């Protein structure tokens, strides 16, 4: 869906379009495993609710047996299964120092997952943008291309400003990132609040056709939202 939506959006507004695939609104823990990796090292394996695995190595202040690691993993899985990073931080449960250390590591993993949830993204319409007179100078073009990496660009766009179902216009210097201040953005989010959600947007020079871009982002967002509701209901 996302790749096709980006192509349609780029062709409609004759600028660059970006669409991310749907993902959970917040990463949630399904369970965790702790595996002894050395005398004072343990491997933390975090299984996310959607089935993805994330790993982190923990430096221990003492040697801990595999049995104790397994008991700790079992207890924390029971306490925190189904929770997001924010929900885990709100819990008031009594933990041992080691359990607290592992819990903080899990929270870090979930927070990193939340921050990277809008990447990678599908991009389309690069030639549309580079044909614009604003990007005709070689250095301007190179500066613009530097931000058009499919993994870094989503981090530069403030999708978190946007309420699902709404469209936000960000013009030039209003962009929070210096690298984006030569551009304007029309961005939106689609999906189910608290459930699966994604983002989409149009990027171009500050003389972007705002009315057309806004209507197309809103329209494509509504279509993608319907697909999410059908597929993930």
Automatic annotation (TrEMBL):
Q: Which InterPro entries match?
A: GAF-like_dom_sf, HrcA, HrcA_C, WHTH_transcript_rep_HrcA_IDD
GO annotations under biological process?
negative regulation of DNA-templated transcription
Name assigned to this protein: Heat-inducible transcription repressor HrcA C-terminal domain-containing protein
- Which terms are listed as keywords in the entry? Repressor, Transcription, Transcription regulation
Give the signal peptide range. Answer: none
Q: What SUPFAM superfamilies does the entry give? A: GAF domain-like
**Segments forming domain Heat-inducible transcription repressor HrcA C-terminal:** 4-212
The Gene Ontology terms for molecular function here are:
DNA binding
* Pfam families in alphabetical order: HrcA
């Amino acid at each position: 869906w996302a790749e096709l939506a980006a192509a349609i959006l780029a062709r409609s507004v004759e600028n660059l379009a970006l669409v991310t695939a749907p993902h959970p609104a917040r990463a949630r823990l399904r369970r965790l495993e702790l595996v002894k990796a050395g005398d004072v090292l343990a491997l933390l394996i975090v299984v996310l609710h959607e089935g993805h695995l994330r790993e982190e190595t923990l430096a221990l202040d003492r040697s801990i047996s595999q049995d104790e690691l397994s008991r700790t993993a079992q207890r924390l899985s029971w306490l925190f299964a189904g929770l997001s990073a924010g929900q885990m931080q709100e819990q008031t449960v009594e933990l041992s120092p080691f359990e607290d250390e592992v819990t903080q590591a899990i929270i870090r993993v979930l927070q990193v997952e939340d921050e990277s949830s809008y990447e990678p993204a599908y991009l389309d319409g690069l030639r549309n943008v580079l044909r614009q007179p604003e990007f005709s100078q070689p250095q301007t073009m190179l500066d613009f291309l530097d931000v058009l990496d499919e993994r870094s660009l989503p981090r530069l766009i403030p999708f978190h400003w946007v309420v699902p179902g709404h469209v936000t216009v960000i013009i030039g210097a209003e962009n929070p990132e210096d690298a984006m201040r030569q551009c304007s953005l029309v961005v939106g989010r689609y999906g189910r609040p608290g459930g699966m959600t994604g983002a989409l947007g149009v990027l171009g020079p500050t003389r972007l056709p705002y009315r057309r871009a806004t209507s197309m982002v809103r329209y494509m967002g509504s279509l993608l939202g319907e697909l999410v509701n059908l597929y993930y209901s």
